[in-house]
Specification:
The chain has helices at residues 26-49, 62-65, 67-80, 152-171, 194-200, 202-205, 249-252, 259-270, 289-302, 305-308, 323-331, 372-384, 411-424, 439-447, 474-496, and strands spanning 10-12, 18-20, 88-92, 100-105, 115-121, 141-143, 146-148, 178-184, 210-213, 225-230, 232-241, 247-248, 335-342, 353-354, 357-366, 392-401, 404-405, 430-434, 452-455, 471-473. It is α+β, with helices and mostly antiparallel strands. Strand 6 and strand 7 form a beta hairpin.
Length: 519
Amino acid sequence: MPRPRDASVTMAGSGTSCQKVNPMDSSMLRDFVGGLWDGEIVPQLTEYIRIPNKSPMFDAEWEQHGYMDQAVALMETWAKSQPIAGMHIEVVRLPGRTPLIFIEIPATGESGDDTVLLYGHLDKQPEMTGWADHLGPWKPVLEGDRLYGRGGADDGYAIFGSLAAIRALDEQGIPRARCVVMIEACEESGSYDLPYYVDHLAQRIGKPSLIVCLDSGCGNYDQLWLTTSLRGLTGGNLGVKVLEEGVHSGDASGIVASSFRILRRILSRLEDESTGRILPQELHVEIPAQRIEQARRTAEILGSAVYDKFPFVDGMRPVDDDLAELVLNRTWRPALSVTGIGGMPALDSAGNVLRPYTAVKLSLRVPPTLDAARAGEFLKRLLEADPPYGAKVSFEVEKAGSGWEAPALAPWLESAVEAASQQFFGAPVAYNGEGGSIPFMGMLGEKFPGAQFLITGVLGPHSNAHGPNEFLHIPTGKRMSMCVARVIADHHAASLKGLTRGVAASHAHTVKGEDGCCG
């Protein structure tokens, strides 16, 4: 029998007035979610971190190794143990593709065919070097509020946090819409399997009016952060070959151009090495005025935390003194990273040889509204054109995933996230773009143009996803579950008023470029 509920919880119904709906006992919800995290979720995540279930891009033999199946089985077993009425759990396996956990949970209130879709992923980035001596990617370590290890925060907690939110509502008898949970297994490889599953499961997914994704970040651990945009990504392997084999550097230097020098020269077509600015205008977009203003507000909230969350070496400083410009650089401007190199021996075995080739792996973050596939095509033309000295230059595009910009928030959701942040963090909601990619968001934005999005996450300062010493901040994970519960409850109330359908504004983005190749 549900306990009496706090009738003070309110939400905006039409954007102009508030009324009491979905009474919720906040203390009861906190106790329930906190207890579930401490008693079940943290132990489950501890075991999940032990599994080296690297994404297929980083483990070509993932199927034979079986680690992905171990992670799926761990999550499936736990989900099936949750007492959620009518819940149906299935591991869907399309031939030749990574598995997907698909969960359908019937509505507990009158909501017609309205659906909430909750998304996460279970595959992981590779190990990376530089972990502290007592830590490791597959070695879970709990220190205070932090659970260290690969994948806990990115994004293993998503299925646990989502079901915790749903259970918390059901425990109090608070009505909600039908919920669908999708946990994929190749997000870190670009979600290339996901479109096939979305098409395969289209009838069962339905037409969600609210999409919740817990794979993003937070500017701090003090409030709820909503992600307003995600950069896209393209990149691949650039190689320069000058010789069939290495030769004596004293004999050949000055006659044979260094493959490294040629590669450096070619990269200067793309990036200004003095400033890091990406030079071709075709890879830039016009930044919306609203996002510029939000970047200024984010800079005001975070101050030096915009940059000092990174482990700079002593004396190193960020690329700009203007904090708002740093936020825009990270969220709306293209940026290049060289993430791997080939053709170079280790320092202790590097002889006096003019090497035959140099190759690098390029990762180019592109603005949220730029077509990543067309950007990759442009990049290939740019880098391969007119090779210096007739060297063999090749660029093979390895990945291309477009970014995403959130539609305008409906009044009900704007009110709901503000109330949730105040209720469970004690601070107002904040808005920020993210520099990384979640390919699923762009895909869903196209398929469900009327849906609202709650994109958030626990990847805050120093959590270091993809790098060494990655950790999950447990109190933020708990509060995230509570906020999701609150928003799902308010979504149901808005649905009864007919406010959850067709509220997203239509976005038409024009890329500013000389020839429009990436529009």
